[in-house]
Design a protein that fits this description.
487 residues; alpha/beta; Purple Acid Phosphatase, chain A, domain 2
Length: 487
């Protein structure tokens, strides 16, 4: 097997136009992987009475879309995981009452899993594994379930409260507040010891040449408003330490959820390019031994098949603010460049692909952007070609992750990932905002209380037959003046 191509994406509203699936179908990947939000279950449907029937109807609606038909006609294997919206409730976790129904619906309607599949009954959810090819040219796909058994966040989410205006945005604000205060959940994001043990078993002494580990939510982001492993700091640390200890060859995290695309890691080489611009070599920003050429990419996120954070004015402003404020996790060239103003990110409709080039030769471009494929170093050596494509299928970002690194180098990669700032650590530099905001709220409340007190106290004194001395003297002078005029 000289190569394997895995395409992936997330966040598809079944009621919106889906032209991006034309581009995906043209690429004809070996497999398509859903990284979450296969559909959006409407909150109003939860109020209609039969929630289970409404959720099933949403899956049938998504399966009948034109984009879905094109995808299934062009791609032989479809797999993946749910996130919150196709799970059935925004920000939901292990306490969601329909979690078992959600698991069976996803395995039935999306994956087409056999009736006796262990993914249907295992205690930690629908996590699973799939391989492509045989050793030494094997690609292993590991799918994590971050919803079915997930513990509770530090502050319960209001994302599913239907009577609130824009509950998802309010939930994001509350997550940001928790991060600013340094508050993270002490519970487990996977929530299942069985899933942890399975993951360790699949990574330990694996004979695959490359490993794609799918998480519906981001692992390494510092973006405080979004759900992520960073809000469960113990789980994030446990995952990265597991990767450093087991040293799986060419491991790459794949995620969705956030409505934009980005490369997450530490910039240690010139093996990346965006919009045709080569990036000069640089030392890693982490004070640790230098990573091998191109090895600084740890995670790729693709999100926004039918809608993105840059679609509407308010969303675009919020998206730009988040990309600018929370960007230390993102690949950045040294000193910045006009081609990477916000680092390796793309806030528009997108999907991702990973091409495993076990024999090392560069793939010829089919969409007219072959100059991108020759940028950076290592094109002749075995590598994973990681790409983000726009709605037309054109490559807008790419990175070459080398294959065949020694185990010590693989361990070093995840030690660098552990050294990257977490959500809580990155938010610490903005904690002065909490002090200013808290001071403003307290000051405003004191002004309001003082105004109410000045207005209400004299009225209460009059009702009781009394009056403050100053006010009484003023009132007496007014009465004498009136009597004098009358006389």
């Amino acid at each position: 097997m000289p190569s394997a191509t895995i395409a992936f994406g997330s966040c598809r509203k079944q009621v919106l136009p889906q032209p991006i699936f034309n581009a995906i179908a043209r690429q004809r990947p070996d497999a398509w992987v859903w990284t979450g939000d296969y559909l959006y279950f409407k909150p109003k449907a939860r109020l209609a009475g039969d929630i289970a029937a409404a959720l099933k109807a949403s899956y049938l609606e998504a399966a009948a879309t034109d984009g879905e038909r094109k995808l299934r006609a062009a791609v032989p294997i479809i797999d993946g995981v749910y996130d919150d919206h196709d799970y059935g409730e925004n920000d939901a976790g292990g306490s969601f009452e329909l979690r078992e129904l959600s698991r069976q619906l996803f395995l039935d309607e999306v994956v087409g899993a056999p009736a006796d599949s262990a993914r249907r009954t295992q205690s930690g959810g629908l996590y699973g594994m799939r391989t492509f090819g045989e050793p030494p040219h094997q690609l292993k796909l590991l799918l994590l379930d971050t919803r079915f058994a997930r513990g509770e966040p530090a502050l319960p989410s209001v994302g599913a409260v239907t009577w609130l205006p824009s509950p998802g945005n309010i939930a994001g604000i509350l997550r940001t507040l928790c991060a600013l205060l340094g508050i993270g959940s002490t519970e487990d994001l996977l929530g299942s010891q069985e899933q942890w043990e399975w993951l360790e078993q699949e990574l330990t002494n694996s004979t695959a040449a490359a490993h794609l580990i799918v998480s519906s939510v981001q692992v390494l982001t510092t973006n405080a408003p979004v759900e992520s492993w960073g809000h469960f700091p113990n789980s994030r640390r446990r995952l990265l330490r597991l990767l450093a200890r087991t040293r799986p060859p060419a491991a790459l995290l794949i995620s969705g959820d956030v409505h934009y695309a980005e490369f997450l890691g530490t910039f240690a080489s010139s093996a990346s390019a965006r919009l045709g611009s080569a990036v000069p070599a640089t030392a890693t920003s982490v004070s640790a031994p230098m990573l091998p050429e191109g090895a600084g990419l740890f995670e790729v996120t693709s999100s926004g098949l039918t809608h993105s954070c840059g679609d509407k004015l308010f969303g675009w402003v919020a998206c730009q603010a988040a990309l600018r404020l929370f960007g230390s996790h993102r690949l950045h060239p040294p000193g910045g460049t006009d081609s990477w103003p916000l680092g390796a990110s793309f806030p528009a409709l997108n999907f991702g692909s990973v091409v495993a080039r076990f024999d090392g030769h560069a793939e010829s471009s089919e969409d007219g952007d072959s100059e991108l494929l020759s940028a950076g170093a290592g094109a002749g050596a075995p590598h994973l070609l990681v790409r983000i494509h726009n709605v037309n299928g054109t490559t807008v970002m790419q990175h070459r992750l080398p294959l065949g690194l020694p185990p010590e180098a693989e361990a070093l990669r995840w030690e660098h990932a552990l050294a990257m700032p977490s959500v809580l650590e990155a938010a610490a530099k903005y904690r002065w905002l909490v002090a200013i905001g808290g001071g403003f709220v307290v000051g405003w409340a004191m002004v309001v209380c003082a105004a109410l007190w000045r207005r209400r106290v004299p009225q209460q004194m009059l009702r009781r037959g009394g009056m403050p001395a100053g006010r009484a003297a003023t009132r007496g002078t007014e009465l004498l003046h009136v009597k004098g005029k009358a006389l």
